[in-house]
Design brief:
mainly beta, 15-stranded antiparallel beta sheet, siderophore uptake transmembrane transporter activity, 2 helices, membrane, single chain, Maltoporin, Chain A, transmembrane beta strand, 391 residues, cell outer membrane, Beta-barrel_TonB
Length: 391
């Protein structure tokens, strides 16, 4: 079992100013603030593991890991008027549980069979508080107490359930070569949603706005199958071959009473991809070996990249794109490794070429077509952020 805690004022500045004091407080407030915003951190981390081996053939285990973090920031650099104050608290909480069973059969074919299950619950949130500062009495106005004006809370929830299976073979001889096979399969379901909780302070009373969101809740289903073969060609040549199939689907769920001004229901997004890897390794001596690997890969855009939509902002608009493609890549790696009494040496030359790479475009000028597509009100936005896939 392991527990760790980190707490302190890591970002509290002890520095000075390069500007003389002035009545407008330009050195300590607003965007011209010359020192970092004061912040307090409190991070908790947990880890616990337990495994039991019944005999040479059976082993079970369970593990738990968790995080509970809070960062509180006095955002003096974010205020636009010196009489305003703004504070923010970033929170993150994650709990992960894993249970597994391993079977080591007395077989000339199978060396390991393993099944394990994961459950993870994650909450990431941002609490933003704003208001007006306290003011001393003057000849023309009474003293004013510090007063809040509004709270804005954004909560991102993710729940993951996953089941994994693994089957490894013994070293099997087919002809002149020795093969060691490994088969893996996985199925998972992930639920993701965003919750907005806003309130304003009017005449000494907090008035809560209806709970809202910026996207439909998303249920993701994923299935993965892979087969890997390590081939002993001779006493100094080793080859590897691998193939993997991935399938995923995004399903938009119901809002369940949440307000969403710009949510648009689209067809379910589906992704499937077959990837492969192969390599060759040569032992030059007992101490030195060289290797070459080439393989393909891919990454599907996550739910927030496809459906996250935040338009009602005077500073800009963030547009969703449910038509994003999966990123694909071709990677090559050339390596030289050596080990001896002096130490270890590893030199690698790596190259990756991407296709349909996900990127974001900041658009400052609007064409007539863009205004018609996104709505006339966006023609007044300073910046429009679009997600695209390269060809």
């Amino acid at each position: 079992m392991v527990y760790s805690n980190r707490h302190g004022h890591e970002m509290k500045s002890a520095g000075g100013y390069t500007l003389p004091e002035d009545s407008l407080q330009t050195r300590s407030l607003r965007s011209s603030k010359q020192t970092p915003d004061d912040s307090t951190h409190n991070h908790h981390n947990y880890l616990a593991k337990f495994a039991y081996r019944f005999n040479d053939n059976h082993r079970v285990g369970v593990s738990y890991s968790g995080q509970n973090n809070k960062n509180y920031i006095i955002e003096d650099s974010a205020v636009t008027i010196t009489s305003f104050w703004r504070e923010a608290e970033d929170r993150s909480k994650r709990d992960t549980v894993n249970v597994f069973y391993e079977y080591f059969p007395e077989s000339k074919w199978i060396s390991l069979a393993k099944i394990d299950a994961d459950y993870q619950d994650t909450e990431t949130s941002a609490y933003n508080y704003e208001g007006t500062r306290a003011e001393d009495a003057t000849d023309w106005s009474p003293a004013k107490q510090r007063k809040p004006s509004d709270n804005n809370i954004r909560i991102f929830n993710t729940e993951l359930k996953r089941l994994n299976f693994r089957l490894d073979s013994q070293a099997l001889e087919f002809g002149k070569w020795t093969h060691q096979l490994s088969f893996k399969a996985s199925t998972a379901e992930r639920d993701f949603d965003v919750l907005h909780k806003d309130s304003v302070y009017l005449s000494g009373v907090w008035v809560n706005s209806p709970d809202s969101t910026m996207m439909y809740p998303i249920k993701t289903k994923q299935h993965t199958f892979s087969l890997h073969d390590k081939i002993d060609l001779t006493h100094d040549w080793i080859a590897t071959l691998g193939i993997r199939y991935d399938w995923a689907k995004y399903e938009q769920q119901e809002l369940n009473g949440l307000v969403c001004r710009n949510c648009v229901k689209t067809d379910n997004a589906k992704f499937n991809q077959l990837t492969w890897v192969t390599g060759l390794e040569k032992h030059l001596t007992e101490a030195w070996k060289v290797g070459y690997n080439i393989g393909t890969g891919f990454r599907i855009p996550n739910a927030s990249e496809m459906y996250f939509d935040y338009r009602d902002n005077a500073a800009g608009a963030w547009m969703s794109n449910p038509n994003l493609k999966a990123e694909r890549s071709l990677s090559q790696n050339l390596s030289l490794q050596g080990s001896g009494n002096v130490g270890l040496l590893s030199v690698n030359f790596h190259h990756t070429k991407y296709k349909d790479f996900l990127w974001e475009q900041e658009t400052w000028m609007f064409t007539k077509h863009m205004v018609e597509s996104f709505g006339a009100r966006y023609s007044k936005c300073k910046i429009l952020i679009l997600r695209k896939s390269t060809g």
